[in-house]
Predict the 3D structure of the following.
Amino acid sequence: MYAVETEQLTRYYGQNKAIIDLSMSILDGEIFGFIGPNGAGKTTTIRLLLGLIKPNSGVAKIFGKELPPAGGKLYRRVGYLPAEVNCYPEMTGRDFLEYAAGFYNMNGFQWVEELVDRLSFDPDKKFHSYSHGNRKKLGIIQALMHKPLLLILDEPGSGLEPLIRQELFKILEEINQRGTTIFFSTHSLEEVEQICHRAALVKQGSMIHIGPVDELPGRGIRIVTLKAAGPQPSNVAMDRLGEAEEIPSRPGYYRIVSRLPVNELISSLTRIELEYLRITDPSLEELFFDLNNHSVSGGATYHV
């Protein structure tokens, strides 16, 4: 059974397209990443799935049923974290959680207290005093408090310090092992590679790739930044590494987009006497740039 299904889902705001013909299916028990830059249509898709807005065309289903208006009983099995968490300024975090608990059939607050402890959250401060990160923690606890069957998260890692973000991902893996399906949007490839089973790439409202994380386009790309210790490397040596260009603000430093297998890349680098070397994965922006300029193979691929 699918936890989430969309078929040619389309939404416009006036003349501006938000999402176009979005089709995807998310299996029960899956952790599914929804990746794209700002303005890609991620939040619009989530709002459609929650019944907060209606599509211009297409169909969306949760647990095999077409979506009711926001507030329908179907959503009692869904947890939701918005990108920005808001509340009455004078309410404490505890007040907010107790209020939210009234919408669900919860058996005590033990799970909530565990989340409060694991996320290092102080529930007794007033909302207006919380930082962005603490507001995000409050939203996460509220989304998880009723142990939903489907968890929809909009940029869950944004604003969290690294240790808390890692703890959040541990919690998500634990509840997923207990049967919760997780759908979350992000602009971080690192987050997707860490936790997701499958992922979709979206850009300007259109899906350009969907498939297992191991088949994400760009996984074979490495961004190499180097500076030679001796004379400038020859063009032959640089061409062997990949597409190279000197960094304008850092004379003598080169940025190289390499598609070599790791062993070949390391072997080629050993032929150059180096003063500085850094190898990283591509950013989301670099990945989309590469997709625009090279053919992509693997998974179900859609051309930009």
